[in-house]
Structures are given as structure tokens and as C-alpha cells.
Design goal:
The chain is an all-alpha fold. The protein is 67% helix and 2% strand. Strands 1-2 form a two-stranded antiparallel sheet.
Length: 189
């Protein structure tokens, strides 16, 4: 591998260009942001988007299964408890999707997106766990079968959760970030 004369691009850029916003951001373009912070924020957004897809797939399988599987002469999906569990999983999946889209859009528009990336990561971690567990649970005993496709969604969702960091860790990081932003606003006044 030879890189002599290869053009390079600095990752992370400046606070005014990447994680924190555009060139006219309040903290100005002179505040450098490390490549690590930038790549971590973008990765969190990407993992959150992937988690939204994994959860949607898990939920779609659970809905199809409960609509076909009958118990006491009627589909499982006619059971109010099953409907509520699936509805909660749907709402969680949509929350993951919307927060991931918002963070990705803000990144693409070169707006501040660090807190949005953390919000998407928190939803993907916390709600993602609930959704893949619900998908497996709604499959009953078949959900515990290692060969069943819903188990792949379960494992993938749990793996993404571990890549994102625990919900508590992400929430703590978000709190620190929001407090520092609030402090900066207070100092600017």
C-alpha cells in the first residue's frame, strides 16, 4: 500500500462544520473536533438506523406469526395482550427510526447533531432491546429455537445494542453534553 501523494481529508473537521454545526455555529469554526468524536457520532446514527431495520423485521415476523398461529380457535393476534405488546414494539421501532432520521438529516445539512446522535443511540439501545425481546416472546416457544429466523433478529438487535453502549451510559453522556451546551448558552448571555 503506497500513499505517497494521496489526497487526504481530515475527519471530524471543525466544530463549525461537523458534529456541532455549520460555519456560523455559535462556538465558531475554530473549535476543533477530533476525528474520534465525529466518527463515533456518525457511527451511532448509522447503528441506530440499522437497529430500526432490525426491529422492523423482528416485528413484521411477529405480526405474521401471531396472525397465522391459532389458539382456542382464533388467531393469537386477536388476544388483547398480544396486540398491546405488538403496538408497544411498533411505537418503539418508530421512535428509533425517527430519531435516527433526524440525526442523519442534521448531519447531512451540517447542523449540530451530537445530541441527536446520542438521542438516536439511546432509543436504539433501550427500545431496540424491548422490540427484539417482544418479537421473540410473541413467537412463543419457536422464538427460542436457534434455527428460527426471529432468533437472528434477536441476536442482531442485542449485538447492535452492545455496539451502541448501554442505554444508561449513552443517557449519561447525553446529559453531560446537554449541561455543557446549557452552560455555554448561559455564558454567552
Amino acid at each position: 500500500l503506497t500513499l505517497d501523494g494521496a489526497r487526504g481529508e481530515r475527519l471530524g473537521g471543525t466544530a463549525g462544520a461537523d458534529v456541532q454545526g455549520g460555519p456560523d455555529a455559535p462556538d465558531g469554526p475554530e473549535a476543533p473536533v477530533g476525528a474520534y468524536a465525529f466518527v463515533l457520532a456518525v457511527s451511532r446514527v448509522a447503528f441506530a438506523g440499522l437497529q430500526a431495520g432490525v426491529c422492523a423485521g423482528s416485528l413484521a415476523r411477529a405480526v405474521a406469526h401471531t396472525a397465522q398461529r391459532e389458539q382456542f380457535g382464533r388467531p393469537l393476534s386477536a388476544n388483547q395482550g398480544v396486540l398491546l405488546r405488538a403496538a408497544d414494539a411498533y411505537m418503539d421501532t418508530e421512535a428509533i427510526r425517527v430519531t435516527a432520521y433526524e440525526a442523519a438529516w442534521r448531519h447531512d445539512e451540517r447542523l449540530p447533531f451530537a445530541s441527536h446522535a446520542l438521542t438516536a443511540a439511546w432509543w436504539a439501545s433501550e427500545a431496540g432491546q424491548r422490540v427484539v425481546h417482544a418479537g421473540q416472546h410473541l413467537h412463543g416457544g419457536a422464538g427460542a429455537d436457534l434455527e428460527h429466523p426471529v432468533h437472528r433478529h434477536f441476536l442482531w438487535g442485542r449485538q447492535l445494542d452492545s455496539h451502541l453502549g448501554s442505554g444508561g451510559e449513552v443517557l449519561e453522556e447525553l446529559g453531560v453534553l446537554l449541561c455543557s451546551e446549557q452552560r455555554k448558552e448561559g455564558e454567552a448571555r
